[in-house]
Write the structure tokens for this entry.
Amino acid sequence: MVVSFKESAKTDPRIKLIAARMKKEGFKPDSLIEILHTAQGAYGYLPKDILLYIAQSLRLPLSRVFSTVTFYHFFSLKSKGEHTCIVCTGTACYVKGAQALLNKLESSFGLKPGQVTADNKLGVQVARCIGACGLAPAAVIDNEVAGKVDAEELIQTINMKTGIV
Amino acid sequence: MNKIPVVINDTKLEVDPHKTILEVCREHDIEILTMCHLKGIIDIGACRLCLVEVEGVHKLMSACTTKVAPNMVVKTSTERIRRYQLITTELFFAERNHVCAVCVSNGKCELQQLGYKVGLDSIRYPFLYPQCDVDTSHAWYVMDHNRCIMCTRCVRVCNEVEGAHNWDVMNRGHQVRIISDFNTPWGESISCTSCGKCLHACPTGAIWPKAIVQGQLQKNPAMITELIARRKMKL
């Protein structure tokens, strides 16, 4: 039942990172969300065995951890892709043509919002508003905000980052 | 402890402070409908059936989570409250797939009794007919999500009384479901102690023991209240 992470922690820097964060927080059960942030940052999503490791380390019920993960849209149980493109669909961006960007992404890569390419290279997501309405339509490519995005440019930028042609 | 005066349904009462409106009403045999309340476990005000009017407050307050205050004027049975109770009950039935005729809980179900009490004769909202699983993986018990009303009494009993915290709630909105562990089948849960308290806490036929036929289910939620009281005595 108890997963031996001690051995793998020596080799996997991501587990080391999570372990260090938990230690820093003093293994407090109420630091769960901070640690989930760290884990998601390290893996890009939250694998089940990592959730088990966190739950056991913080002495939290498994169902409580799963409940927290599924409640917040920020956390994901599935891989979001090595590279991500988040298109803002807030009111301003929507009016300025966010849908055209999404259509272009779908025709170019065959991805609808929430989907990831088969090789896990690229994932497309939508956000309600990223707070950059002055830059509408806005997109976030690998944590970099791009403003006044043109559909063609967007595809080119993604191609450059991911190596998909 | 000094008692404080409150007025409930035009009757002056002297009551203990630190008590909720619901506790005071139950003590004085004033009827308040509840679904998510189970005496002894923490109230969360989820079912919205215990809503009461408090003078000077525009919105309706849930009696189970609102404490009495000096000179509070409360009304528990007005036209407005009865209208909301009917709406709430209709929404309960429209949200999942409740079919009394084939339910183990038929005749002993708190949801069914609530329907009778509020005079439910038709449902004005479209049924959602969600796809719900029936988890029969546990050796003794069944979890039927079709009949669940998300009162979370099982979640709270499992956490507060048994201390196992096998149950919790996943997702949000219409996608909410009661889960055991990482949404693993109940039978494969590593937290569940198979104590059966959730079964007795459940107001509907959502959790029931196997080898029970239609209408034969006997639940005993008062047992849980008694259990909590006895444990407090030992402390």
In short: Strands of chain A lie at 83-88, 122-127, 139-141, 144-146.
